[in-house]
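Summary for the steering committee. One of the milestones for this cycle was to obtain a three-dimensional model of the protein with NDP bound, which we needed before selecting residues for the alanine scan. The sequence and ligand used are listed below.
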Amino acid sequence: MKYSIDSKKKVLVTGATGFIAGWLIKKLVEAGVCVHAAVRDPENEQKVAHLKQLSEDGPGTVVLFKADLLETGSYTQSMKGCTTVFHTASPFITKFDDAQKDLIEPALLGTENVLFTASAIASVKRVVLTSSVAAIYGDTVECASIPNGILTENEWNVTSSVKHQPYSYSKVLAERAAWKISEGQDKWSLVVINPAFVIGPSVSGYSTSATHDILRQLSDGTLKAGAPPFEVGVVDVRDVAEAHLRAAYIKKAEGRHIVFNESKSFVNLAGFLTEKYGKDFPLPKKELPKWMLWLVGPIVDKTFSRKMISLNMGHKWRADNGKSIEKLGMTYSSLKASTEEMFQQMIDQGQIVKK
Ligand code: NDP
């Protein structure tokens, strides 16, 4: 499916320092676009160096703006003159003290903040929201009870809460708020991307996302005795960035889009790495039996509650990526290649060390 990027029109990317945003901005700059990059701390050289480099390489440019999801009106300056807003910013973290404060408020209030600003700024015509498959389902067990056992864009996560799967809850609250704000106006249209688990190298060269924490666990011996029997959809980060571009520039694009290539388990991901890295790293070769995880998991790692294990381990994860292929023209890259590239980059950066 052909689409063209109008390089004369400026765009805003929120959360510009992020893993997904890095590739999105790279593709936009390579197409000649002037990207307004909203970041929390433009003075943090480590986080913004790659954005400055992209701007230098051109042909497009990156202009940094300071903004925070929790500050009302914070995105006004950066949004002025932009036709498209890519709202990617949202905390994707595994370690937090207070789910309400650290995850839910920035996700929900931040989305409201950005989208109300979009309504107030005349130039904005389209908003592309980075939601997640986490807004579609809460626990993997739910796949079995929906029609055909396959998640589609028609499903909504109705089981997560502040106490159970708070990250997923933050994403479903934010996406619901986005649709509500979008339906209350007709100046801009909303298109939503719902990626599954995103892998691949980062543009910045360092790890920003919780995705990197999971890959690190595959290599540091934590899962040597066996990996949790956990399945999830997996997609290359460059494909996710491409889906965002298509959501922005294909005029007819509408609604939500599940974006992933294949369903994989932790052992499958480790399997992609065995050939090249198996000798040097204690990659998991088998899955732990669910009963064992249930018994010892919560003792070893507090994030593994028995409820989490029962509802998510040992269940099949199935979803339909057909809409992304049919309506956005997506094709998906090899997951083996992206797992290897990500792993190698983490070794090169010293984020993964040989035991
Ligand atoms: P990153 O952690 O790399 O990016 C998150 C971005 O959000 C960072 O740029 C961060 O900025 C910004 N952010 C967090 N809190 C605030 C705040 N209070 N104010 C302003 N900015 C803030 O993660 P990803 O690139 O992986 O995630 C991007 C989006 O994709 C998120 O919405 C996430 O939920 C979604 N997603 C990710 C998936 C994945 O597997 N990676 C899967 C599905 C969806 P700072 O650098 O200042 O911390």
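Key point for the committee: The chain has twelve helices and ten strands.
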